[in-house]
Design goal:
The complex is a heterodimer of chains A (350) and B (435).
Chain A (H helix, E strand, L loop, with lengths): L4 E8 L16 E4 L4 H9 L3 E9 L1 H6 L1 H15 L3 E4 L6 H16 L4 E5 L4 H6 L5 E4 L7 H17 L6 H4 L7 E5 L4 H14 L29 E5 L3 E3 L15 E4 L11 E3 L7 H5 L7 H9 L6 E7 L7 H17 L4 E3 L4
Parallel strand pairs in A: 1-3, 1-4, 4-5, 5-6, 8-12, 8-13
Antiparallel strand pairs in A: 2-3, 9-11, 10-12
Chain B lengths: L9 E6 L3 E4 L4 E3 L2 E4 L1 H8 L5 E9 L5 E3 L2 E12 L18 E15 L16 E2 L14 E9 L5 H20 L9 E5 L10 E8 L6 E5 L2 E2 L6 E3 L1 H5 L3 E5 L8 H5 L2 H9 L5 E9 L5 H17 L4 E6 L8 H14 L3 E8 L20 E6 L12 E3 L3 E2 L8 E2 L12 H8 L1 E5 L1
Parallel strand pairs in B: 1-8, 2-4, 6-21, 8-10, 12-17, 12-18, 18-19, 19-20
Antiparallel strand pairs in B: 1-11, 3-4, 5-10, 6-9, 7-8, 13-14, 13-16, 15-17, 22-23
Helix pairs in contact in B: 6-7
The chains are: A alpha/beta (350), B alpha/beta (435).
């Protein structure tokens, strides 16, 4: 028999048994052993795990002082070095769910596997599922405590021991924006006709892919004075100097490059290649300014309608880009531009 | 007496094939196809555009890798009826879907080649590889068929467009020539394809496919003509079986195969259930990969409109036979949306893409109407490394990405350039789940 896993459990003050008006403002505390639902959790863990400590905090206190609480909890986790961190379950309680999600994320960042539980409509689920956290699907209220903790305990043991996990449906966690190829043993055409006949008859069917909605990126506010702003050109068009010196790929790029454009009035045809595999680049090669409008921006610069244009062009390839890689590259490029004092970016659509 | 010349009734005689051999005579006997190399070359030659054609034979289980694969064609010939198979290429563009064909089962003509002029952007071929054995073979279409491989070398001075036009003729003439060996033999197995009138209460179903068409290297041909300006139209499924759609799309190694158009798995499945569970009305095709948001939305509505005018109640939607990807995901989703909004119960089938650990969104666009999706799994998640092989057909190197130097084609490979992978995955029954 392996050593029992050392579990640290997070609960809010309400589930810690502190009722009344003041419970939401309960300060952060750490105590030995299990408390509240942690006692049931410990039973369900059987010999596989032991709740060595319970962290408790009022939901209001957490939401008002989130960063300070997080720092303290990080300290607890560093000292306790648990094998697994369990939070909640929070059911449909929004503030509790947000706290559980945030603390699980922090535990994962410290290398401690984390498991929580929420109802799928808990805002903590919307916020933290895309961060790939394991959130067991629960009922809306504490009437579902027993089955929720049962699944959380089972998943905690598997994760704590590094055992292979089943699918989201098998383990009972909410889809966490991770997909894996599996064998069904039935050709796709057969499944498609089966599914559409069920849909036609009004029977229950299950789509094999429920799509996550994308983050809405609001347009930034207008510049206060473009004439005094340093501009930069960024492109995902894959327009690169002839020969593609940085070996940008035609698709699924994970790196970017920058090229000097100081002193250039326009991009000269013949000096540029288009490596992006997603569009017909014939027109772009005939006149690269039509994907990266250096000529037009220089005209605005000359007319004094914009401040100066930064001396480097930042390039990657957007074709079939991984969202995570694109976010990272965007942040890397933005970081450099901010260091250089750039206040506005022109990112022409390709 | 009724005139049945427009009846779209097709019989297909199917001949088993185990072995391909070079022989003194081109001849089919005892499940073996003998090929007289000189006579074969004489029939398929395109001397103005192709200087040389190397012919190779590849069988399942061999330590053999085929590279720079451009297309795969079933070995078939029309032995009775107007027109020919592959109408518009092998004959004038006379409507097909009737008469009698002969087809050699589990056999293909594969065409391989390298284009003479440099290419870039969306109109350039992408590396496509078939391993005939080993762990990657399970993910390659045509690792389990006997393949006549034609490696074509461009004549000096020809353009890419001229070379490509010649490649279409070479592969289709080859497929017909080889299948003609069965013309005077009674087939051991005869398949009958006719959309007979059925019980009117059965739901009326159409199959809706967006074709990959963007230009040279990304052509899908209908009756011998690319589909660049095609407005959505109707095909009888027998026309697909007869090769009305021919692939000239080399953009995605996983997709775009003439063989898969002719043996389309959804067409076959709807045929199988016709008269029992469904009333299969036909196929709606249109061009995907439209150039602007306006055209993508318009195309969605035009596809749905044709399906409705056919009287459909149910639509099964694919793009490029189950592949979509990149900007066409928008065309695909707009088609689903339009079908649902015009009252069709719609299921769509697609492959997923994303990063290797599956933690990125696997689709680049989505509409709420896409509430019934069938996945054929994701690229880049499961294909094992392929070990070195004894024999390579098609060239000494492979270049799966322009960001990498070419690799030794005979060495071990960890790539995702397997030919026909999406079609193969759909046949294998792969899917993807939340994990």
């Amino acid at each position: 028999m392996a050593e029992p896993l050392r579990v640290v459990h997070y609960i809010n003050a309400f589930f810690g048994g502190l009722g009344g008006e003041e419970e939401a403002q309960t300060t952060l505390s750490l105590q030995d052993g299990a408390l509240g639902p942690g006692r049931l959790l410990e039973q369900l863990l059987t010999d596989e795990g032991q709740v060595i400590a319970t962290i408790m905090c009022g939901d209001g206190y957490f939401s008002e002082r989130e960063e300070a609480v997080v720092t303290q909890v990080q300290g607890y986790l560093r000292d306790l070095k648990p094998d697994i961190f369990v939070a909640g379950p929070a059911f449909r309680s929004g503030r509790y769910g947000l706290a559980c999600g945030r603390l699980c994320l922090e535990a994962e960042r410290l290398g401690i596997p984390a498991v929580t539980g929420m109802h799928e409509e808990n805002p903590g689920s919307d916020l933290y599922r895309p961060a790939h956290l394991y959130i067991i699907r629960t009922a809306a209220s504490a009437v579902g405590m027993q089955p929720a903790l049962q699944r959380m305990a089972a998943l905690a043991v598997k994760r704590g021991r590094g055992l292979p996990l089943g699918t989201a449906a098998e383990e009972g966690f909410l889809p966490r924006a991770v997909r894996r190829t599996v064998r069904t043993g039935i050709p796709a055409a057969v499944r498609a006709v089966d599914m559409v006949l069920k849909k036609w008859r009004g029977e229950t069917y299950r789509s094999e892919l429920s799509v996550e909605t994308f983050e809405i990126i609001p347009p930034p506010p207008p510049l206060s004075d473009p004439r005094k702003t340093l501009f930069a050109l960024v492109t995902e068009s894959g327009l690169v100097p002839r020969g593609n010196p940085d070996r940008l790929p035609a698709a699924t790029a994970t790196h970017w490059a920058k090229y000097a454009i100081a002193g250039m009035d326009r991009l000269v045809p013949g000096e540029w290649d288009g490596v992006h595999g997603g569009y017909d680049n014939t027109a772009a090669l005939q006149d690269p300014n039509r994907v990266v409008p250096l000529d037009a921006i220089r005209a605005l610069e000359r007319e004094g309608l914009i401040g100066r244009l930064w001396d480097e062009l930042f390039v990657t390839v957007g074709n079939l880009g991984s969202l995570n890689a694109m976010k990272r590259m965007g942040a890397e490029i933005a970081g450099l531009l901010v260091e250089r004092g750039v206040g506005a970016v022109i990112l022409p659509a390709t | 007496m009724a005139d049945d010349r427009g009846a779209f009734t097709l019989d297909v005689g199917v001949f088993p094939l185990q072995r391909l051999v070079f022989a003194s005579q081109t001849h089919y006997q005892h499940e073996t196809l003998g090929i007289n190399r000189a006579a074969f070359l004489n029939v398929i030659a395109e001397p103005h555009a192709i200087a040389e054609i190397d012919i190779h034979l590849a069988h399942p289980g061999e330590s053999c890798r085929i590279v720079h694969v451009l297309d795969a064609v079933p070995l078939m010939v029309k032995v009775e009826g107007r027109s020919t198979v592959f109408p518009g290429f092998v004959s004038p563009a006379i409507p097909v879907g009737t008469g009698r064909n002969h087809r050699l089962a589990a056999a293909t003509v594969l065409v391989c080649g390298t284009f003479p002029d440099p290419t870039s952007g969306a109109l350039s071929p992408v590396e496509a590889i078939i391993d005939m054995s080993g762990p990657a073979a399970a993910y390659c279409a045509f690792s389990d068929t006997a393949n006549v491989v034609l490696v074509c070398h461009a004549a000096p001075g020809v353009t890419n467009a001229e070379f490509d036009a010649a490649l279409q003729r070479v592969k289709l003439k080859a497929a017909v020539y080889l299948a003609r060996t069965t013309a005077n033999i009674d087939p051991p197995d005869l398949e009958h394809y006719h959309l007979r009138a059925v019980e009117p209460s059965l739901p009326r179903v159409v199959y809706v496919d967006l074709l990959h068409q963007q230009g040279l290297m990304a052509h899908t041909f209908l009756y011998g003509q690319h589909t660049q300006g095609l407005e959505p139209t109707i095909l009888h499924p027998n026309e697909m079986l007869d090769g009305a759609l021919v692939n000239g799309n080399y953009r995605a190694p996983g997709r775009g195969i003439t063989y898969a158009h002719c043996q389309n798995s959804i067409v076959r499945e709807l045929y199988r259930r016709h008269g029992r569970e469904v009333n299969f009305l036909g196929v709606v095709i249109g061009r995907g990969w439209q150039d602007t948001q306006f055209l993508k939305e318009r195309q969605g509505w035009m596809m749905a409109r044709v399906a409705c005018l056919l009287g459909a109640q149910i639509a099964i939607v694919t793009a490029d036979m189950g592949g979509t990807g990149g900007n066409n995901t928008i065309d695909f989703m707009q088609t689903i949306k339009a079908c649902e909004q015009m009252g069709l119960r719609t299921v769509a089938m697609l492959q997923e893409s994303g990063n290797p650990d599956g933690s990125d969104p696997t689709l680049v666009d989505y509409v709420p109407e896409a509430d019934a999706l069938v996945s054929v799994g994701g690229v880049g998640w499961q294909t094992p490394a392929a070990p070195a092989v004894d024999r390579v057909i098609g060239g000494p190197t492979v270049r799966p990405s322009i960001a990498q130097d070419p690799l030794d084609a005979s060495g071990s490979l960890q790539v995702e350039s397997w030919y026909g992978a999406i079609w193969k995955r759909s046949e294998l029954g792969l899917s993807a789940v939340d994990a």
